[in-house]
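subagent[fold] <- orchestrator: predict structure for attached chain, return C-alpha cells only, no commentary.
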Amino acid sequence: MGILRFLLAITVVISHSNSIFGFRLVGAVVAVQTFYLISGFYISLILNEKYQSYSLFITNRFLRLYPIYWIILLLTLFFSLASFYLQNNPMMLDSWFKYSKNMDLVSIAYLIITNIIIFGQDFAYFLGVNVFNGQLFLTSKYYAFDPQLPSFILLPQAWTIAIEFLFYLIAPFLVKKNYKLIVAFVLFSFATRILMYKIGFSSDPWLYRFFPFEAGFFFLGILAYKVYCRVRKLNIPKVVLHTVFILAVLLTLFFQYIPEVVKCVNLTQYFYYLIIFIILPFLFIFFKTNKLDRYIG
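subagent[fold] -> orchestrator:
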C-alpha cells in the first residue's frame, strides 16, 4: 500500500503549497484521516503477527519515531537561532522570542516538554495563552487568539504523531477483541462526532485533531484487518486485485471531481473512507510481497 500512502503524503504537501497541474487529490483532512485508518490496519497486523509483548511493540514504535524527530527538532532549533543572529529572523522561534517572557512556568514547562516528547502537541490546538498573565486556558477556537499556542511548537506537523501515540497506547488492548466490540467503538466515535458537529464543534481543531473523534478511523483499520484475516485464505483472481488497486489510485487522484451529494455532512469524503476500508485488505494482499511498493511507501 506504499503507492497509496505516497499519494496521501503528496496530498498533504499540496494542501500546504499549490496544486499540481490542477490536482489537489483528496485534501489534507481526508488524507490524514485515511492515514489513521491505514495505521489501524498495520498496527493490528503487527500486534497479531509480529510482536508478542506490549513492551516490545511500544519500544519499537518509539525507536522508529523519536530519533528522526529529535534530529529534525535540533536542526530546526539550530537554523532558527542561526537565522535570528544572522538575519534577525527567528523563524520557528518567533513566538518564543515575542511572548515567552510573559508566560508562567507551567505554560513554558508544558511547551518545552511537548516539543521534546511529542505527547500533548495535539492538545495545543485546544488551548490559548493569556498574554497578560501567561496562563493557559481551554478554547474551542485556538486560531481566534494571538499568539496561537501551536506556534510555539517547533515541528507543528508532529501533532499527528501525538494522536498516533495515543492509539499505540490503547491498541494492544483492542486489536484482539471481538469484532462486535470494535464495531461498537466505531459507531460510538462517529456518533459522538456527529452530535458535537450539530452543536457547533465542526471546525478546526475538531475536524481531525480531537482523538476521541479520530479513534473511529483507527478502529475501522482494526476491522479492515479482521476482514483481511478472513479473505487472505481465498484464491482471489489477480484481475480483482488489479482492479482494486486501480480504483484506489483513481479515487485518490480524481477525488476533487466527485460531485458532493450532501454538502452539510461532506458525504463524499465518507464515501472515500468506506471504499478504502472495503478494499484495504485486498490492497495489502496485492502488495504485501512487492518490494517497489514498499520502497515507495
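orchestrator: received. Logging for downstream: The chain has two domains: 2-50+174-296, 79-158. The mean pLDDT is 91.
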